[in-house]
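Teaching note: in complex prediction, the entire set of molecules is handled at once rather than each chain in isolation. The prompt given to students was simply: 'Predict the structure of this complex.' The entities are:
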Amino acid sequence: MEIYLPIADLPVNVFLILGMGLAVGFISGMFGIGGGFLMTPLLIFLGISPAVAVATVSSHIAASSCSGAISYWRRRTIDVPLAGLLLAGGIAGTASGVWLFTMLRSIGQLDITIGLSYVLLLGIVGSLMVFESVRAIVRAHQGKPVELRRPGSHTWIHGLPLKLRFKRSRIYVSAVPVLAIGYIIGFVGAVMGIGGGFLLVPMLIYLLRVPTVTVIGTSMVLTLVTMASATVMHAATNHLVDAVLALFLMVGGVTGAQFGARAGHRISGERLRLLLGLLVLAVGIRFGLDLTLPPENLFSLRPLEGG
Amino acid sequence: MIRPAPLILLAATVTAAAPPAAAERLVTSLSEHRVMVTSSFNGSEVVLFGGIERDTGVLPLRGNYDVAVTVIGPRQTVVTFRKERVLGIWVNYESRVFENAPSYLAVLTNRPLEAITGAGTLRRLQLGLDNIALPQRIDSAAADDVPGETFRKAFLKLKDEHGLYRQESNGVTFLTPALFRASIALPAEVPTGTYEIEAMLFADGMMLARTPSALEIYKAGFEQFVTSSAQNHGVLYGLATSMMAVLTGWFASVVFRRE
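The expected output is the structure of the full assembly:
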């Protein structure tokens, strides 16, 4: 069954879009991430312009992180003050990201920037995750105890001023890195069409020492609000959010996420991180090949605004 | 009651066929004047029917007529980028702006254009993909529009790949010596707007008559609603989409809640 997408201006198969939503939703539920880094490339591969893909995926991520955030809320594992402070940075980051997105689009360098950012970010994060999880698995096999981070270990981050106490996460940390992390995630998310969960969770754990209990729920709240505001900002400035496409992606996504979450409980944490790392790395490599291999077509067209 | 459209058509026909030397008149009619783009739109086809009339009392109809139908979609200014390798990666390096280029262009004939008339006439009439004027701009300076130029060639090729530019030498079929039909294929990607159609009648390499008409492609119903809200009420549209996301998420968490 084909449906014509009003903003992307092309017909797509409804079942294909629903299926993609389900598959990405499954993965996102399994790893507790938004799945934007998979969905955006998939849409681009379908022939949807990168600009429409990035803008539309933000609403899809908002939906999947919303259902996640609600279930974490019920379990009372969201650190509201921490989420609020992250959000203050996040919304500012999103606004600058949308501004950069609009600017790059007008000079014709948006696609290449999206491509390069994917290669760099996914390549680095993917390699780190694979490296770290392989080491953990090897250690477990050798029977060595898993290296636990001492709760008292401090870094330069803890020396920054404006310290605040976050009761639910049991941390006492400066507001500066919290705002900065929020800003980076919002910025990267708006430009690349990703929620940034796979970046945010490690940052919160390693930099701010947020305990694993509250980290996912809190990161989901940040993702929900930054992606919802990215949707509004993309819609207001670039008029590129395709609501019809978004609806099908959301319905598939939230359904898939439920099954993914159940599957995720059956796999150990290290293996899960290894799988996610490999996936992230694979997407990064795919983008890298696209950039470095001679393109099939050297030329591309883009209508000028209001032309 | 006569609808106004055929009247205008007829009037146009009479004025267009005014040169006294030509005794032929060309009358055309479209199967549809308005094409709706709805959520099930997957391309469409519009048929143009045409009849050749010759003034009574003069010579009988000739049998060697040729017809060329040109369909030009709403004009757009388009940038064509060329990728080049910079530091090992392929980036959009050079660009040309094509000003007011047809977003859609179909040239339908009953036999190859070169067989219908000479190269000079084709150029003068801007008939065919090789002869259509595509003014270019490099930065702000005007650039020459040379037929074999690489950006022009690439532009035509990309448009052709999307089915938006087409030249068909069997696009016009004569049903009788004086009656023909041309089918205009509109792919799913066609932009909305007004399409100018011009039918030209040739005999022995001479253009005898030309008849313009128009076709409108427009988004209707839900599609129209979504597009216009996205364009005109961006903030509200964005808020509604975000709301939809939150509701979908909330709905899923209720449906799949494990007791």
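Point out the following to students. Helices of chain B lie at 4-16, 113-116, 119-125, 150-161, 221-232, 234-255. Chain B has six helices and 14 strands.
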